[in-house]
Amino acid sequence: MVALTCVARGIGGVDDLRAHLDPSRVFFGVLRFTFGKGTFARDKYVFVHWNGDACSVVKRGRANAQKQAVEVRDARCVVCDAARECGARSVARGVGG
Questions:
Q1: What is the pTM of this model?
Q2: Rounded to an integer, what distance in angstroms lies between the CA atom of residue 14 and that of residue 4?
Q3: 3-state SS assignment for residue 61
Q4: Rounded to whole angstroms, how far apart are CA atoms 65 and 68?
């Protein structure tokens, strides 16, 4: 089993998350979006699955085997294989899809 560690957390949204992505690793992340205000506020979650394009196949397979352990229930999943794919538009598709 691959040990999972928290690399970072914050309130910077997609740009903050993307700043921590390393092309030689696999990362899992969660973004929370709140729509509306007061009693009409609703939270939407997007689970981001990052497969670095420079990550070895074996390392990727071992980390990806842990995906179910970290997936967030009721969250949409967005899979990114390159930093340019992990942007606001990809995440917006995850929230709306």
A1: 0.74
A2: 21
A3: helix
A4: 7
